[in-house]
């Protein structure tokens, strides 16, 4: 299997000379890194070439690295039933630079790209209907970004008096607590409320 993966990786890199920035084999899959400008031609080759035939798109997802200038990785997972192999494509982009949509080559990319837009804010140029997929109407922000607050911005609840769903700003009902992670057998350096009863 390793030899077949190496042969296919070599074939792809030779055929796409200049369009692939880096290649490797990890965990039994071929990994290719490329720029967004080469994405469509690479996807079309991988789908149509008789030696590759990656005809099925499995997933498109985002990865957020907020410390980088191009903070997002966009990762494409493809399957070739003919070769019985999987391939991963990876490219980088920022919050304002759109990635070309793969929907013309893989119609199944439609909802994957919508999900990446909804969860991360990754833009796809040429997408037929780029709108939110999983979050509610009027939702602010993108919940899988690392800088999105864990509590979110609004909470949704059903109001019995109004007989409808209401949106309210998040209100934390518990004060901030400072947890110590000492072993309970070692004990704490301070007296916990109620401990004074045990020493009497």
Task: Please outline the helices and strands.
Layout: H1 2-15, E1 22-26, E2 29-33, H2 39-48, E3 56-64, E4 72-80, E5 85-93, E6 99-100, H3 109-120, E7 124-125, E8 154-159, E9 164-169, H4 195-198
Parallel strand pairs: 2-5, 6-7
Antiparallel strand pairs: 1-2, 3-4, 4-5, 8-9
Q: What does the model show?
A:
Helices cover 20% and strands 26% of the residues. It is α/β, with parallel strands linked by helices and 200 residues long. It is extended, with a radius of gyration of 24 Å.
Quick summary:
By secondary structure, the protein is α/β, with parallel strands linked by helices. It has four helices and nine strands, in the order αββαββββαβββα. The strands form three sheets. The protein has a five-stranded mixed β-sheet with strand order 1-2-5-4-3. A two-stranded parallel ribbon has the order 6-7.
């Amino acid at each position: 299997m390793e030899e077949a993966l190496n042969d296919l990786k070599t074939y792809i890199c030779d055929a796409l000379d200049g369009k692939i920035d880096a290649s490797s084999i990890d965990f039994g899959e071929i990994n290719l890194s490329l720029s967004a400008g080469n994405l469509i031609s690479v996807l079309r080759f991988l789908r149509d070439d008789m030696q590759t035939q990656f005809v099925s798109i499995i997933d498109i997802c985002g990865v957020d690295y907020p410390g980088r200038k191009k903070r997002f990785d966009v990762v494409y997972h493809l399957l070739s039933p003919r070769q019985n192999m999987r391939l991963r494509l990876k490219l980088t982009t920022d919050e304002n630079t759109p990635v070309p949509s793969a929907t013309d080559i893989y119609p199944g990319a439609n909802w994957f790209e919508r999900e990446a837009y909804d969860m991360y804010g990754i833009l796809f140029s040429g997408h037929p209907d780029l709108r939110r997929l999983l979050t509610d109407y009027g939702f602010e922000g993108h919940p899988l970004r690392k800088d999105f607050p864990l509590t979110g911005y609004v909470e949704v609840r059903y109001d019995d008096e109004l007989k409808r769903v209401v949106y309210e700003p998040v209100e934390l009902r518990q004060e901030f607590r400072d947890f110590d992670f000492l072993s309970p057998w070692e004990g704490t350096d301070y007296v916990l409320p109620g401990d004074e009863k045990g020493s009497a």
